[in-house]
UniProtKB/TrEMBL annotation:
SUPFAM superfamilies per the UniProt record, alphabetical: Homeodomain-like (SSF46689)
Gene3D superfamilies: Tetracycline Repressor, domain 2
Record keywords: DNA-binding, Transcription, Transcription regulation
Pfam families: TetR_N (PF00440)
Record's protein name: Transcriptional regulator, TetR family
GO MF term list: DNA-binding transcription factor activity; transcription cis-regulatory region binding
Boundaries of every HTH tetR-type domain copy: 1-61
Organism, scientific name: Streptoalloteichus hindustanus
Length: 185
């Protein structure tokens, strides 16, 4: 019997491959080779599932990455590098998933609220890393936005920019960071 995480993983895969309209009990049960009864063992209804899926997306693709980076520690520049490696190499975080959640957010208030929160959390984390790297205060927000918008834009163009193609783009962007934190006189 599949557990709650299995249903959520199936939901992320379905969302990435087919979009939010495909998030139906029938489609998810078929994907897992299970009955609807198994679904109802874990979720009251499809609305509850969709809410749980959005929470799972946020935890897996935002707070989970931040937690991993923070646990590894290191300088802000090292944490930037670790974050980029995670984002560019995680096979469980396909570009299609990011695009699908953004598309869902255009049609659904709860998805929109989640996407806004995710965008805010990600940008704030990048701001904290930039500030810790010694970026001048007036440049912290623009650099954080630049780094994040490059990622979002890479997902939105057709065809999406591959992780391999993103590495030199981020290497260039990372040159905007000071080599060492600047001390205040």
């Amino acid at each position: 019997m599949a557990g709650r995480p299995d249903w959520l993983e199936a939901g992320l895969a379905t969302l990435a491959e087919e979009g939010a309209p495909a998030l139906t009990i029938e489609r998810l049960a078929g994907r897992l080779g299970l009955t609807k009864g198994s679904f109802y063992h874990h979720f009251k209804n499809i609305g509850v599932f969709r809410s749980a899926l959005l929470e799972y997306f946020e935890a897996r693709c935002t707070t989970g990455y931040i937690d991993l980076v923070e646990r590894a520690g290191g300088s802000p520049r090292a944490r930037f590098g670790r974050l980029l490696d995670l984002v560019l190499t995680d096979e469980h975080h396909p570009t299609d998933l990011e695009v699908a959640v953004r598309a869902w957010a255009l049609q659904d208030e709860e998805a929109r609220a989640t996407q806004e929160r995710v965008d805010h959390l990600r940008t704030e984390y990048l701001r904290s890393l930039a500030a810790g790297s010694g970026v001048p205060a007036e440049e912290v927000t623009p650099i954080a936005r630049l780094l994040y918008l490059v990622l979002v834009g890479a997902h939105q163009v057709l065809p999406p920019v591959s992780p391999e193609e993103m590495r030199p783009v981020y290497a260039l962007a990372m040159r905007l960071l000071p080599d060492e934190p600047r001390s205040n006189p």
